[in-house]
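Sequence design from tokenized structure. All designs in this work follow the same two-part layout: the structure record, then the generated sequence. An example of the structure record is given first.
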């Protein structure tokens, strides 16, 4: 497999090999270690690049998030409407089984409350 390394990596690889040679490592072994280290670093860099998000990834994530938000809005509206209907039904049931006390009485209701045997009373005269 032929690896095309950027210029700065080649320079670092050569510097690493020279440093090993200076420390007493044979030239062939120093070059092999430098190449092996360079391969490892390149694979690490490639894996890091695969983890990065591209603009397309970000746009796709935005679209998915918008769809999820829209779905959540629709579900929330459904729940609010359903809850309102349930509350109205409960209030209607309570009013049916426990009707509210009338606040205002009609004239007919007032006539029914007065006993028919009692004659109407004349208005009271002011006390002197």
């Amino acid at each position: 497999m032929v690896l095309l390394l950027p210029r700065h990596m080649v320079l670092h690889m050569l510097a690493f090999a020279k440093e090993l040679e200076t420390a007493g490592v044979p030239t062939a072994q120093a070059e092999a270690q430098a190449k092996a280290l360079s391969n490892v670093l390149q694979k690490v860099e490639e894996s890091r690049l695969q983890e990065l998000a591209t603009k397309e990834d970000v746009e796709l994530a935005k679209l998915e998030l918008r769809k999820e938000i829209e779905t959540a809005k629709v579900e929330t509206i459904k729940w609010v409407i359903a809850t309102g209907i349930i509350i109205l039904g409960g209030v209607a049931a309570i009013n049916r089984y426990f009707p509210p006390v009338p606040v205002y009485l009609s004239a007919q209701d007032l006539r029914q409350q007065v006993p028919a045997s009692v004659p109407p009373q004349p208005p009271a005269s002011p006390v002197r």
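The chain has two domains: 1-52, 54-96. We note this feature because it recurs in several other targets discussed in the main text.
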